[in-house]
From TrEMBL:
Gene it is expressed from: rdpA
Pfam families listed in its UniProt record: TauD
Family of this protein: Belongs to the TfdA dioxygenase family.
Protein name: (R)-phenoxypropionate/alpha-ketoglutarate-dioxygenase
Provenance organism: Nocardioides aquaticus
SUPFAM superfamilies assigned to the protein according to its UniProt record, in alphabetical order: Clavaminate synthase-like
Keyword Iron: yes
Domain TauD/TfdA-like intervals: 9-250
Top-level division of the source organism's lineage: Bacteria
């Protein structure tokens, strides 16, 4: 296994074969993800069975209530622009943050790569926290953001809102990261008025997504990318996409104990 650190966030991992992975792959990747947020594994010509086995190596899988599963694979879902008259809309966000225990990891495997465009972008939320102005850090210390669901049809027993620290310690390392999601899903900051919440969330998002804090991952055939939802925001860049962009997605529910 070889690694190359990516800037401003992520690590590229080569000399790995996900059709016959070594047993030590998962603990190594857990450690890399906790530190670097994103792992790019290129050249993986795998099917959904192998992709599912890779995800299961991290632990029990999770699925976002209200989304449509991939046929034959109830733990996976489809990300696609095929057949759409207008490009999908994607804002920087954290997956399923409106539940008390958000999924630990999300992964995509490339199925069809467009001829142009279609990158996935990631932010470094450790760095976003560490570079916040001191007065804003002081104002937000100890506060929480209420994350709410939007755009997903939930059942009566599904979670629809959860409070999380603005400065959320990583569940494994304890390292703090700036934890927020898309503005529509950040309904309140504790101790702030709605107007103050809106202004503060906009400030935090602009700070997190400034160009020097964003990695653009340009997809190649065979790419598998996995990221730590406690350490990054992500979005798909649908501007200027030419051709079909098809990904299969899976999520891991919890971080490994210890």
């Amino acid at each position: 296994m070889q690694t190359e650190i990516l800037e401003p966030v992520g690590v590229r991992v080569t000399d790995v074969d996900l059709t016959h992975p070594d047993a030590d792959l998962w603990p190594v990747l857990r450690a890399l993800l906790a530190e670097h947020g994103v792992a790019v594994l290129p050249g993986q010509e795998i099917d959904d069975d192998a992709f599912l086995a890779f995800l299961q190596g991290f632990g029990e899988l999770a699925f976002t209530a209200g989304e449509t599963p991939l046929e034959g694979y109830p733990d996976l879902n489809l990300i696609s622009n095929v057949g759409r008259e207008t490009p999908p809309v994607s804002n920087f966000h954290v997956d399923t943050s409106y539940v008390a225990q958000p999924p630990a990891y999300t992964a995509l495997r490339a199925v069809s790569i467009p001829a142009a465009g279609g990158a996935t972008q990631f932010t470094n939320q450790y760095r976003a926290y560490e570079t916040l102005p001191a007065d804003l850090c002081e104002t937000l210390e100890g506060r929480t953001i209420t994350h709410v669901v939007t755009g997903v049809d939930l059942g009566p027993d599904d979670e629809a809102a959860a409070d999380h620290p603005v400065f959320r310690p990583h569940p494994v390392t304890g390292r703090p990261a700036l934890y927020l999601t898309s503005p529509k899903r950040c309904s309140a900051i504790s101790g702030m008025s709605p107007a103050e919440t809106e202004e503060t969330v906009a400030t935090l998002l602009a700070h997190s997504t400034r160009p020097e804090n964003v990695l653009d991952h340009a997809w190649a055939p065979g790419d598998v990318v996995i990221w730590d939802n406690a350490a990054v925001l992500h979005r798909a860049d649908h501007a200027g996409v030419v051709g079909d962009r098809v990904m299969h997605r899976g999520m891991v529910g919890a971080y490994a104990a210890g």
